[in-house]
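Retro notes (design track)

What went well: tokenization of the new backbones is finally stable.
What didn't: we kept losing track of which sequence belonged to which structure.
Fix going forward: every design gets posted as structure first, then sequence, in one message. First example under the new rule, 140 residues:
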């Protein structure tokens, strides 16, 4: 599967790839992914679990899984009162010889993010119950 910003699944080993038919959560929107990346960044400093479009994270540590589940649930609830869509800054356009070009934006959708969070929470909970690995893949 390609073209995603985040792919979340449960695995029996840390460097596993997604098995066909296995439950997974996939997020394709760059705006939604950047929003989640910024909002969940604290997980890296708190428990060492980095959610990034440019890297993968994997754990079967019950304490880390609990922190991830708590963070996802908290954000899911918080988004229930968010407006339906908003702009998220992805970065800046590169223009040689200039300091910074204009900002680059993408749309983020509350419903898309909440659906992804709901699916990801379920996968995290299952991984914790099964003492399996949670794999949070960034970008492909």
């Amino acid at each position: 599967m390609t073209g995603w910003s985040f792919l979340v699944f449960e695995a029996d080993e840390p460097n596993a790839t997604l098995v066909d038919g296995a439950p997974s959560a996939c997020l394709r929107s760059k705006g939604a992914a950047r929003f989640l990346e910024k909002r969940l960044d604290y997980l890296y400093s708190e428990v060492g679990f980095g959610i990034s479009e440019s890297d993968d994270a994997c754990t079967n540590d019950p304490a880390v899984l609990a922190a991830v589940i708590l963070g996802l649930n908290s954000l899911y609830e918080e988004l229930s009162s968010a407006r339906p869509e908003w702009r998220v800054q992805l970065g800046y356009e590169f223009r040689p010889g200039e300091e910074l070009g204009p900002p680059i934006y993408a749309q983020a959708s509350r419903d898309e993010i909440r659906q992804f969070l709901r699916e990801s929470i379920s996968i995290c909970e299952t991984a914790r119950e099964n003492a399996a690995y949670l794999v949070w893949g960034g970008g492909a």
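Added context from the reviewer: Strands lie at 6-11, 24-27, 57-59, 85-92, 103-109, 133-138.
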